[in-house]
Amino acid sequence: MNEIMKVINKLLVETFDDILYIEEKTLKEGSFNDVTITEVHTIEAIGMYEKKTMSDVARSLDITVGTLTVAVNKLVKKGYVERFKSEDDKRIVLVGLTKKGRLLYRVHDKFHKDMVTEAINGMDEEEAQLLARALGHLNDFLTEKYSIVKGEK
After folding, report:
1. Quick one: average pLDDT of 99-128?
2. Could you give the count of Cα atoms lying within 13 Å of 50 in the half-sphere of its Cβ?
3. What's the distance, CA 123 to chain centroid?
4. What is the pLDDT of residue 87?
């Protein structure tokens, strides 16, 4: 069992590092070389079609509205995000993606879908369920051990 634990640890560390490297390299070399991975995650938190309040987006990223405001200002300048006033309450600022922002969202989402598809390629339903269960256990451990509040990451 000790040997398999070493193999799993090595694979988890390498996979995590590879995902970060690929995402950053793809951004730098691709059509979206003007955004950072943090900005991509902000775009992801805003979502495809629904306009969201700044508070909701900040909460989902576990950052302050002030920090989000700085990020959104940059993304507005770069043409990925738009601001809107709420119809109901003009004091409330909503954010949504522009066409360019939605395109980046789809490209990033496809990378993640392709990654998951390849991870379970060749597995039967039971094996895929086992992998999901193992990753769920890992996620639960990290959440509990490091006091991560779900929905506030």
Report:
1. 95
2. 9
3. 25
4. 87
End-to-end CA distance of the chain: 33
Q: Which residue has the tokens 């094996």?
A: 127
Q: Which two tokens stand for residue 14?
A: 């390498």
At 25-57, the pLDDT tens digits run: 888 888 999 999 999 999 999 999 899 999 999
Cα–Cα distance measured from residue 83 to residue 72, given in angstroms and rounded to the nearest whole number: 9
Does residue 81 contact residue 97 with C-beta atoms inside 8 Å? yes
DSSP characters for 12-64? HHHHHHHHHHHHHHHHHHSTTTTS-HHHHHHHHHH-SSS-EEHHHHHHHHT--
Whole-angstrom distance, CA of residue 85 vs CA of residue 9: 48
Decide: 33 and 27 in contact? Cβ < 8 Å.
yes
The upper half-sphere exposure of residue 104, i.e. CA atoms within 13 Å in the direction of its Cβ, equals 31
Structure tokens at 118: 């390849």
CA distance to 25, 94, 147, 153, per residue, from 46 (Å) = 23, 10, 24, 13
